[in-house]
Amino acid sequence: MSETHRPTAAEAFARLGRIKLGETDLDGVLTIVAELARATVPGADAVSVTLVRATGPATAAFTAELARSLDEAQYRRGHGPCLDAAASLQTLATPHTESESRWPDWAARAVDAGVLSALAVGLPVEEGVTGAINVYSTAPDAFDDEAVALAQTFAAYAAAALANAHVYDVQVTLAQQMRVAMESRAVIEQAKGIIMGERRCTPEEAIQILIGVSRQGNRKVRDIAAALVARAGRTS
Question: 133: exposed, middle or buried (C-beta count within 10 Å: 0-12, 13-18, 19+)?
């Protein structure tokens, strides 16, 4: 994102709407969201995106190391503005970290890092997945009502882009898994045919032989089958 051009809200929203999922993945979309938010929200010096899944919270994208560091300080303690915003899907502002009393340990760390105000905007992504856009500033009281409203609208557009990316990512993963499963099935069928030819046995007996070799060698049936097919190809 060019530092010489600060996009307008309309430009930022249009950019989020133009993301082509076939040309990037979920991580790419998250990076665009973080960088675009930093360039768009007035007062923002650093931005991160927190995602909270069943496995726990994680910073999925960030524009500066201090943003990730302040996020992770919250994860370790189990509380903080980004976690509370993700849980409630609300907007939580910290106008002055030096006098913040809701999360005093995190606020003290923020002050030490030079962050004097912050904004966390809840981000619904997908069923079972929430998050927050975390905006940090080195100035106190950096986010006025206009900046907060813009951040909230930005988060709504970002949530739609991330939900689409999440669904697309799941579909791509399932397609890859199906392709691998089909390839595995094909090589196992070839191996069964080889065993049937060599042992003069039934298909059921052939698969049991493969399973037995797999257990004895503690290897996957597909790997045993692939090795058998490769050996047959070399000797044919």
Answer: buried
pLDDT tens string 6-20 = 777 777 776 776 666
Q: Which domains does the chain have, with CATH numbers?
A: 9-173 (3.30.450.40), 176-235 (1.10.10.10)
The radius of gyration of the chain from alpha carbons, rounded to an integer in Å, stands at 26
Burial 45-75 (b: 16+ CB within 10 A, else e): bbbbbbbbeeeebebbbbbeebbbbbbbbbb
Angle separating helix axes 104-112 and 65-77, nearest 10 degrees? 160
pLDDT in tens, 136-174: 999 999 999 999 999 999 998 888 887 777 666 666 666
SS3 112: helix
Rounded to 5, what percent of the chain is helix, strand, coil?
60, 15, 20
CA distance 116 to 126: 32
CA distance 46 to 114: 11
Nearest in space to 168 (alpha carbons), one of 7, 18, 20 = 20
Are the CB atoms for 215 and 208 separated by under 8 Å?
no
Beta strands across the sheet bearing 56-62:
56-62, 46-53, 129-137, 117-126, 91-94
Strand partners, 48: 62, 134
Amino acid letter, residue 102:
R
Give dist(CA 234, CA 74) in Å, integer.
58
Q: What is the pTM of this model?
A: 0.68
